[in-house]
Amino acid sequence: MPYPTDRKYTKEHEWITADGTMGITDHAQESLGDIVFVELPKVGTEITAGKPFGTVESVKAVSDLFAPVSGTVTTLNDALATAPEQVNKDAHAAWMVKIKVKDPAEMNALLSAADYDKFVSEEAGH
Amino acid sequence: MVREIVRKTALNAVHRQMGAKMVEFNGWDMPVEYPSAIGCGIVAEHMAVRTGVGIFDVSHMGDIRLAGREALAAVQHISMNDASRLAIGQAQYSALLYPQGTFVDDVIVHRLGEDEYLLVINAGTREKDFSWVRDNTRQFDCQVEHLSDDFTQIAIQGPKGVDVLQKLTDADLSAVKFYWVTRGTVCGLKNILMGRTGYTAEDGFEIYIPPDEETSARVWREILEAGKEYGCVPCGLGARNTLRLEGCLSLYGHEISDTINVWEAGLDRFCKMEKPDFIGHAALEKTKAEGVKKTLVGLEMVDRGIARDGYKVLDESGREIGYVTSGSPAPFLKKNIALAYLPPGQAAVGNTVKVEIRGQGVKAQVVPTPFYKRPKKTAKSE
């Protein structure tokens, strides 16, 4: 499936938009399988680029969420507490948290949609 | 040089073709789930088996045949259940034990003939089990054969499993009771063994067909086709695990192992101490008198969180008292459940404990097991 070009991606399979909205990629939801639990930090939590800030669980697996960039959590997608399967239905719409990005320059280090697509297909080829 | 070889069943190419997500399991390259694009995924596969029918490639399971004048005596010596109670065509759940009363493996013992038995064993313990059985039955006039590679084994599970298989065989399956076997023509293949057994806490059959890829693929596809009207889906190891967990069926290396004994695992009803002797008998007599230090219980999460294999169980004050052997969301029950070892004093139904999840104690409660029991058929539908 095509990855939206309005956002950046990480090799840990998260996406983030310029305004700091974050989620996991379609590839991530596909490899996790049926998602049953999303654990997010409290509003106000400082998160650090590359460090885990939450957890996604499928029936089978527990997976950490890694922060694409550093920042402060401002909003949570509360709907995921009762309907985590929304992530399976549309991972690129089912955002998880919004953050206030600390240093917008950190965004430059992230992958473009095309680069992420290439990264995922190379990973699958191994 | 020792090289790790990942083994493949005869249906491997079929699984890949269907888009299954593959994982290594006990040295086997197996499907964990099939894609959502064909109506699958662990939850959908699980629900299909509870409400309709699903099929599993279980060819990684092993098979040992014991045949000869003293086959019964040999089986009695190496297993804890009483095989003398088996009529020809009947099967029973049992286990092979070490002298200390702990588990070599759990098995299904089938009596196929007057002096012929088939043990169906776990994938991860095939070689160990075969050596164990061979070495401990030398004193008996009985041949021991390792037949693990002689079959493709397919499990057809769910309330509609019998209807699907009945479309493909001349055998009268309504005459086969739970934990009995029959033989018949299946998909044109003569003399196929069909057992009304499984690992899903549901009705169903397991069939043993020739292991070549062409036959295996043809039968797999014919079953799926025959099952279409009942919503039959292919199922992977993911659903197999959640189904057996809801039914509280033990998994080797989790609820049972070489360090856990029969009493701790709560498998008393399959262990016939009145049998004069079997390997493990003496130690079990002793440990029974002494009492157990831990016992297997069912837990249901009260607060938000999912217990997983290996997580610690704490008492209300935060002291470590036990561990989770298997934990998962239960797709049919729609609860988060777990099996855990706890001290007997903490094992009463209703007792509240905590499961340590990412450093936090999350409230759980001891509940009756099994978590799921299939509804009894009415006399009419039987």
Describe the structure.
The complex is a heterodimer of chains A (126) and B (382). Chain A has 126 residues and is of the alpha+beta class. The model of chain A has no long low-confidence stretch (mean pLDDT 95). Chain A has four helices and nine strands. Chain A is 22% helix and 33% strand. Chain A starts with 6 loop residues before the first strand and ends with a helix. Chain A has a single domain, classed as OB fold (Dihydrolipoamide Acetyltransferase, E2P) (Beta Barrel). Chain B is α+β, with helices and mostly antiparallel strands and 382 residues long. Chain B has three domains: 144 residues, 2-Layer Sandwich (Gyrase A, domain 2); 88 residues, Alpha-Beta Plaits, CATH 3.30.70; 75 residues, Elongation Factor Tu (Ef-tu), domain 3, CATH 2.40.30. In chain B, 21% of the residues lie in helices and 31% in strands. Chain B contains nine helices and 19 strands. In chain B, a hairpin with a 4-residue loop joins strand 16 and strand 17. The mean pLDDT of chain B is 96. The chains are: A alpha+beta (126), B alpha+beta (382). The interface between A and B is medium-sized, with 13 and 18 residues.
Draw up the topology in text.
The complex is a heterodimer of chains A (126) and B (382).
Chain A (H helix, E strand, L loop, with lengths): L6 E3 L4 E4 L3 E4 L1 H7 L2 E5 L6 E2 L4 E7 L3 E5 L4 E6 L2 H4 L3 H4 L7 E5 L11 H13 L1
Antiparallel strand pairs in A: 1-2, 2-3, 3-9, 4-6, 5-8, 6-7, 8-9
Chain B lengths: L11 H6 L3 E5 L2 E6 L8 H10 L2 E4 L4 E6 L3 H8 L12 E7 L5 E11 L2 E6 L4 H10 L7 E4 L5 E6 L3 H6 L14 E6 L2 E7 L8 E6 L3 H15 L5 E3 L1 H10 L15 H4 L15 H10 L4 E7 L10 E3 L5 E11 L4 E8 L9 E6 L2 E8 L15
Parallel strand pairs in B: 3-13
Antiparallel strand pairs in B: 1-2, 3-9, 4-7, 4-8, 5-6, 6-7, 9-12, 10-11, 11-12, 14-17, 14-19, 15-16, 15-18, 16-17, 18-19
Helix pairs in contact in B: 2-7
